[in-house]
Amino acid sequence: MLLLVTDDIICRYLIVIDDIWDISVWKMIRCALPDNDIGYIIVTTTRISDVAEKVGGAYKLKPLSLNNSRELMYKIIFGNENRENTKDKEICLDEELAEVSNKILKKCAGVPLAIITMASVLACKARNEMEWYEVYNSIGVGIENNLDVGNMRKILSFSYYDMASHLKTCLLYLSMFPEDYKIEKDRLIWMWIAEGFVQYVKQGKSLFEHGESYFNELINRGMIQPIYNQAGMIYECRVHDMVLGLICSLSNGENFVTTLNGLGHGSPSNMIRRLSVQNGNESQAMTLQTRNLQQVRSVVAFPDATASVVTVLRSFRVLRVLDLQDCDLSQCCSLKYLGNLFHLRYLGLCNTSITQLPEEIVNLQLLQILDVWNNKMYCLPSTIVQLRYLMCLYIDGFTRVPNGIGSLTSLEELTFLGIYDSTVDIIEELGQLTELRVLHIVLFGEWNDKLVECLHKLKKLKYLYIKDRSGQLNIGGLDAWVAPPNLQILNTRSGCWFTTLSASAWMNPSLLQDLSLSTTVRELQQDDIIILGSLPALRYLNLMIVGEDLGVHNEIHGECIVGAGLFPSLVYCQLWGNVAPIVFQRGAMPRLRTLDFRLSVQEVRGINGRDGGIDLGLRNLPSLQKVWVHLDPEGANKAEVKELEAELTRAIKIHPNHPQLYGIQDEDADDE
């Protein structure tokens, strides 16, 4: 929404309203939008042509051309194989499959969602003409002439029925969440595990890792849409509303999920298996009180429905999943009744304003996941250490854990564990949790070398986060640590954990195959650049160099060179602190999209390009989209700062991508 306001009066506006299903909804919205003579634009989208005509006339989007359709399909099917093919992306790499793929594309009628769905199905099939024709013949007749909502659903249905039974079950579970809801990846996988949808198949892999493979398979099949973080890692997903419509229809037909959202889409059956409460009006509360709730296995409630769910929690007898995330429970008299949910595997109380858990939590002997993060809970009950099946524990860093935490030997994820001077013995117990894959630690006291001994025992760690709240800089605290071979994320940004990366025992490119790194070092040398750049799958790099903050003055001579072939997978790079100017040579960082770095005006002046100006080699970064530059003007005058700003601006303008440039400042430059 864009508004131009003068003297509290809206003069001009542009508003986009997405996905209107009913003309009455449009009429209600239109009443709130003022008419004027200055100008306004209202854009609406709908899948119903009658609604479009009544709103003000339909503009039908043109379908993709055949060549564009082919390019989209082959990109999904052939993936990396098609990356080197820069000219003929619309040509099938397997000539045998060209004819049948054209026929399938004709059925998709240029609709992107249909193409993506079918391409995702074909990507999971053998590259065999007969198998692809089976797909083609299964889609239906006449669809290409009328790809309306009904026929689009036929294509989506084919993708659903082509999946293995365990994937179908996991997909149907997504109907627990409202339209356009961003679903946290880990939360969803833990729910699947608690429901019993995820089974051990391969030795050496945890249940969560099996669930993660299910999640990735649904992405590969185009049934869910991934959401990436800065490091290029998937942390959330969403479901396209067309796909969600199919899922809800199938779920309703099988009485898989009952949804109470005030729209009347719930299952007509009196027996409820899984309950999603998205609306808390009085009629919904009455509905809950009159339905049979004794067979409910999962309950997910959203903030508007808090009161409705809390009043009937005592009615559940076989509940395995209870998720009340973001519901305000501060007015609940007691949570003791939670101790009666003997079959509970998943208890989600994140951001619910609770201050304590009842001692009766010990009754939940089958509990696998406990999430009480983002609450004002200053300690866990002592009985928590008796929950021997607990696999995942989310708490706040300031939440004290009782003695005996080492007995929770099934724990795979512990976020966050606060360590104080008074609780330093907890470190030794931490070393007993050898199944840990994910560990977040918050240090409130002095550094203790026992922590390195403890980390040596945790051979299955994939994600390690250490945050220092003591205000101290622990020089070389982790120099002796040898990282486990499966480490994927190391985040020790707040504190000085390494002297130099090249001298650290853990930095072994042959072992660390897939890593995102955020840490602090005393100094950054050319050898460090080479070792870091040799990590084949390093996607995210965030370094703070703090030599001067430690009273160590590092003489900087020249620059650090990022040579050809280094950092082949890096997409995000941030370099802060006392770092020498970085020069990028051709062939370095081919996938880098975001560069964030500090630049000393005085130190960078010695780097001369071919034309006599300052040349950092930014043009050699072919994927660059955003550049954040933080100029340090110490020792430079305003003219020198202006000159460097102009050079950087010119480098950005001549870059083929024209990346965005942020952060140039010169307010503190000396006047001389």
Automatic annotation (TrEMBL):
InterPro entries: Apaf_helical (IPR042197), Disease_R_plants (IPR044974), LRR_dom_sf (IPR032675), LRR_R13L4/SHOC2-like (IPR055414), NB-ARC (IPR002182), P-loop_NTPase (IPR027417), WH-like_DNA-bd_sf (IPR036388), WHD_DRP (IPR058922). Residues 295-661 form the Disease resistance R13L4/SHOC-2-like LRR domain. It holds the Pfam family LRR_14. Residues 12-78 form the NB-ARC domain. SUPFAM superfamilies: L domain-like, P-loop containing nucleoside triphosphate hydrolases. It comes from the Eukaryota. Residues 176-247 form the Disease resistance protein winged helix domain. GO terms for biological process: defense response to bacterium; innate immune response-activating signaling pathway; plant-type hypersensitive response. The keyword Lipoprotein does not apply. Keywords: Plant defense, Repeat. The keyword Repeat applies. GO terms for molecular function: ADP binding. This is Uncharacterized protein. It comes from Zea mays.
